[in-house]
Amino acid sequence: MVTDQATYNKKxxxxxxxxxxxxxxxxxxxxxxxxxxxxxFEKYNWLGRMANALSLFLGANILISxxxxxxxxxxxxxxxxxxxxxxxxxxxxxxxxxxxxTVVFLVALMNFTGLNLKETFFSLSIAAAAxxxxxxxxxxxxxxxxxIMFSDQLSLGDQIRVGEYKGKVLDITLINVVLxxxxxxxxxxxxSVIFSSMVLNQSKQNIKKLTIEFELDLKYQSSPDMLERExxxxxxxxxxxxxxxxxxxxxxEIKKDLVxxxxxxxxxxPDKETERKMRRMLINTILSxxxxxxxxxxxxx
Length: 301
What we know:
Largest sheet: 5 strands, antiparallel
Order of helices and strands: HHHHHHEEEEHEEHEEH
Helix content: 55-70%
Strand content: 15-25%
């Protein structure tokens, strides 16, 4: 059975509300036990530490969840977005809440084991400083990831190009940006690379360029004007998908036996399927020139 996105979002939102209610019930239950079972906890110290650690973790987790709900609701209402929309701001808050919950869990775990929090934090701060120096690239990736999430320059679903890689942004984590290329392969690009490289975001443009480079043998005696006319003619069925007067055919290089061409035009409404059909039509037309040359040679013989 196929479930549409709206139905999926509603079910997911209901599940999150249910989980939040369960956490509240468990938290108040633990608080009640803490307040009424002092003598029992004095007899079994480890149970008392467990109850304190659990109440600390659940209380902090509930506060983080309330803050998350308030900020998300304010942001979605401000931008008139649907609940559970995958947006950079929402994604950034999710990552931050996960980090905070992890920190709270570690504090609760130390509380359960009976460690002195002040001494432990002091020791951990020294270890963390040394660890940060050793893993500065990892830390830089995390910081860059948060900056990308809370900026509007790169969003989920954007079509981008980074160096030799291009594709659709599927996810932004604290470590890398996840791309899906035209072959449906998953490409992971570190956030530091995104931050230090030139990124072409095609989705932020109102138009998209379609470019094909190819080479033709000099034996085929055809002028660039004739070649351009035939390529334009092959795209006539897709004229409504091409920006007027944007078609161009350029000679990039003339070699000993070959001419290196580049054909380029603008697509006002990017459509992956239409783009694929136009690209194939152009390639078939280009390949037909080599076939004509062979036929001409056979006729001459």
